[in-house]
Each structure stands twice: as C-alpha cells, then as structure tokens.
Design goal:
The protein is an alpha+beta fold and 382 residues long. It has one domain: Orthogonal Bundle (Cytochrome p450), CATH 1.10.630. The protein is 53% helix and 10% strand. Keywords: Heme, Iron, Metal-binding, Monooxygenase, Oxidoreductase. Pfam families: p450 (PF00067). This is Cytochrome P450.
C-alpha cells in the first residue's frame, strides 16, 4: 500500500452520500488510503487530471481486477498500442458523425414511442419508465444485440456495474454479474454472423479483433452505456424540476439542455471513479506509491473541487463546468461520450419536458452509490 494518510469510511454511509467524506478528504488528505476499499484515493481535480494520463505509472491493466475477472479484458483495461488498436476498431460505431447521421434518428424514434406510451398514464417513475427504456433502446441499437429487451439490457448493465464495484466481496452480487455476462454472450452468439450495420459488433468484427476482445468490449459498452445515460436523464430531470427557476431559463432559451446536463454530471457524477494499478514505484505530492498498489481516481470529487467551483454542492446551470472531468481525460476519455450527449441533451430531456406539460415531482428522489451514482426512483406526475 502507499504511505498516504489513512482515512476510514463507513461503506454504507459512503454509498448513501459520498460527497461530505470526499470534501473532508480534499481538505485534509487529498491523497488518502482507505482500508475499507483497499485503495488509495486521489480526490483533487488537478491530481486526477494529471495522473490519469500517466498510464506508465497508473496503469489500466488489471488482470486481477474486478472488471477483468468478471467481464473479460476490454480496451478500458489496456494501455498504449493495445488500447488504441481496440479503440480505433470501435470508433466507427461511436464517432460523432456516426452518432449524428446514423444513431440519432433511431434514438429519437424509440424515445418518441416510449413517451407516447407514457402520456395517457399521468404519472410514472422517470428512472424505470422513461430513462431506462430510452437508454436501453439506444444501447441495443449501438451494440447490435437487437434481440435483447429493454429490461434485459438494464438488468445486465446494472448487475455488471454492481459486480465491478463489489469491493466488499458480496457473493450474491458476483453471481448476478456472472449470470449477466453469460446472457450477453448468448445474445452475441445469436447475432454474430449477421450483426447490424455500424454496430459495435459489426465494426469490431470487420476490424478483425479476437472474439474475446469483441465480447469484452461489448460488455464494456453495456456497463457504461446503459446506467450513465439512464441515471443522467432521470437525475438531470429531477435537478431541473427541483430548481424551477433554472428550468424556466432553459425554456426561454437563456440556457440549454447541454448546460443542465453538464452541470448535473459535475454535481452528481454517474461514473464516480476509475480504478488504476501502480505499474512502478513513484511519488505524487510527497506520497510514495508501490508497484501493485490499487488507486481510485475520484471523478466525482474532481467535480466538486473548491479550487475550481464556487459553492460546489449547489446545482447551478450558469457555472463554467469546463474543469469537471465526468467522462475522464487523456487516452481513456469515454468513447461513448458523443452518443451519451446526443441521447440526453438532444432527445431525452427536451422531449420529456415538451411532451408532458405540467411535469412535476411527486415525492423525494433517493440516490445511491459512490463508484456509480444515480437516483433509484424519480416519481413524477403531469
């Protein structure tokens, strides 16, 4: 382990709301070892932004890490040429041009059908009834797993990210994750000979990637591509409904859906951290890291760093969110960022508020998670 100062956490309280503890860490021990997680956390924005790019020290290669063991060695768990080769193979499915020209019309058709089905009901849970199927429909198209249902896509994604955050070793969580990856493999096998055009399956197959890599990368796309948009759609909608003055400014054209989304993912980061393993002994800000140490880069903490954001615990769509790094930085910047932004800011949010007049909250919205965070329910009426 590193020789960083030690900070103990209550895992349950950290999952319920990590932000007070992260603020304490930023102030008193910005690089700190947390015994309950078996990892050293980097919590200040500049340290994370700088060290994430030093992959020769803070490596993504983690052959014994939870993601690799449970989902296979995907491109996120590779560095250098190996990472870039697979990233380039996947790029044709996720490029901004492909998203705008190919996927956006499909995203919009699916979202409109979902909202039309909701309209007569007068109430719903935005997480399960809107954000979940909208995200799942988009992800089914992108992956090429066209026989998978919305509910299946949401379930396997949730069970995989639960598995990847299972640092306490819960056997039931691990078993659910294995069942999810097995189901994905069956869907891949079913469609592999004739994958849909431009899908993640099709472009990787065309690039000649090995089957193990194709499977692992499809699971990677699912693990981040379902829950992050789902949680950001429902969470941003909740934030705007909780701040009606800011919603009114968007309706008047004084601010945009992009502003709201960017502020939300700064404020409540759907992907809260990225794990790394120390590849060689090194020192950062006086803290010595030893080869093999586990490190967590806390993107959620970077988004509330007081050095960059005034009143960081406040939702404010007027602020400059540029310094926040909710999608990461450097070579491992989220490959699906363009698809996520398109789905959320160009389709899901404007359609929701346009189609459901008088939309309002109908009770509190509970949140959970620290490695991945989002609302578990957002009850609304209209």
């Amino acid at each position: 382990m590193s020789d960083a100062p030690v900070t103990h956490i209550d895992p349950a309280a950290f999952a319920a709301d990590p932000y007070p503890t992260l603020a304490h860490m930023r102030r008193d021990a910005p690089i700190t070892f947390v015994p309950e997680l078996g990892a050293t956390l980097l919590t200040r924005r500049d340290d994370i932004h700088r060290e994430e790019k030093r992959v020769e020290v803070f490596s993504s290669r983690q052959p014994d890490g939870l993601m690799t063991v449970l989902m296979g060695e995907n491109m996120m768990r590779k560095d250098g040429d190996d990472h870039m080769r697979e990233r380039r193979a996947l790029f044709p499915a996720l490029s901004p041009r492909t998203v705008a020209d190919h996927w956006k019309p499909m995203f919009e058709d699916a979202a409109r059908q979902i909202i039309e089905d909701l309209k007569p009901k007068g109430r719903c849970d935005l997480v399960t009834d809107y954000a979940m199927p909208v995200s799942a429909a988009a992800l089914i198209a992108i992956t090429g797993l066209c026989q998978m249902s919305h509910a299946e896509m949401d379930r396997v994604s949730q069970h995989m990210i639960d598995g990847c955050a299972n640092y306490l070793g819960d056997q039931e969580i691990e078993a659910r994750c294995h069942a999810a990856t097995a189901l994905i493999d069956r869907h891949i096998d079913h469609i592999f000979d004739t994958p849909p055009e431009r899908s993640a399956l099709a472009v990787q197959k065309s690039a000649g990637l090995a089957m193990d890599s194709i499977r692992a990368n499809v699971k990677l796309v699912i693990s981040g591509g379902q829950n992050e948009p789902r949680d950001a759609i429902a969470g941003t909608a909740w934030a705007l409904l909780s701040h009606p003055g800011q919603l009114a400014m968007i309706r008047r054209g004084e601010r945009s859906w992009v502003d709201a989304f960017s502020e939300y993912v700064r404020w409540i980061s759907p992907i809260g951290m990225s794990p790394r393993v120390v590849a060689r002994d090194d020192k950062v800000n006086g803290v010595t890291f030893k080869r093999g140490d586990r490190v967590f880069l806390m993107f959620s903490s970077a988004g509330r760093d007081e050095a960059y954001f005034d009143a960081p615990d406040v939702f404010d769509i007027f602020r400059d969110t540029g310094p926040a790094i909710p999608f990461g930085a450097g070579p491992h910047f989220c490959a699906g960022a363009a698809a996520s932004r398109c789905l959320i800011t160009e389709i899901a949010l404007p359609l929701l508020f346009e189609a459901l007049p008088g939309l309002r909250l109908d009770g509190p919205a509970p949140f959970t998670g620290w490695a991945f965070r989002g609302p578990t329910s957002v009850q609304v009426t209209w």
